[in-house]
Design a protein that fits this description.
Rossmann fold; about 325 residues; three-stranded antiparallel beta sheet; elongated; about 45% helix; SIR2/SIRT2 'Small Domain'; alpha/beta; six-stranded parallel beta sheet; 2 domains; binds 2'-O-acetyl adenosine-5-diphosphoribose; 15 helices
Length: about 325
Amino acid sequence: MPFLQGFFSPNFYLKSPHFLLYQYEILDVIQIFVFFAFFHEFNYHGNRKKMTQSTSIKKLIPHLLTAKRIVVLTGAGISAESGIPTFRGQEGLWKQYRAEELATPYGFISNPRLVWEWYDWRRQLIASKKPNPAHKTLAEWENFFPSFHVITQNIDGLHHMAGSHRILELHGNIWKMRCLDEGIVIENRETPLPELPPHCPHCHGLLRPHVVWFGESLDGTVLSEAFQLCQECEVIISVGTSGVVQPAASLPVAATQNGALLVEINFEPTPLTSLAQFSFLGKAGEILPQIHQALLEAHRKRTLPSKKSSAKKSSPQKK
Ligand code: OAD
């Protein structure tokens, strides 16, 4: 489907004047279209091999052990087991709250106090949560693999808290605020906030959450770096994202177009599933640690001398 390729090319976002985070009203149509196009083109319900999870993990391990560069794209699903609600689905935040009131620049200008009340509530919720085994596994992998990066759509900071350092936050960070007058970004972890809406400690201008809202551009440097990492990696693992929000959803596509292997971990199939060579349906907090155990086992076997060769070495040499 060549006419679709433009959407999945980084140039579509980087060369256009604004690489906007798509707005529900306008671009859902495109997202739904892309969703069905994918399912049709790659015949998702067709001949996908049904492997058991442990067989799949065994088959995945050699790919991970030989990869020089690995990238993980995470979404709200990775923090769900920490107790942070996701956005879509039955219990999702966007089922209960109106994104256009709470997560758009227009919503903020119309009612900054309402937006800040919502963010203050989320900050208090997130402050009480801890990284789960999925975050912790990814933090360990930073030391395990030669080149390993996390690209996240999450603003909760749990990857940092788990110990990851090489992280690109596509949608900003809930613990940062930006002054509307001066543009400076400050870190603030106070919960609850004493003043709503908060004001800049330097110029007393209005502060906004340093996050990306619908209809806004992503940080160009962060986005370019994310696309570059995806174009260079051999393996990309998509964890707990619905894969419907652009431009993040195009990152795994860009990676596969450059020959990377796509692994997906999610409760349910997504528009990305049909592109994935490995699809694990289940909880990230269970599957990632299982993959980690299998990796350690395979690594141990690799580094231990085999019985045959050690027997040879220890047997006396014939003269
Ligand atoms: P969504 O809420 O859209 O999707 C969460 C995904 O995680 C779904 O596909 C779930 O099936 C999956 N999931 C839930 N629990 C899981 C678990 N324990 N293990 C594995 N998978 C699980 O969240 P995102 O795709 O991250 O943007 O949403 C992208 C962006 O849309 C967010 O960053 C946010 C939102 O609007 C902004 O607010 C700017």
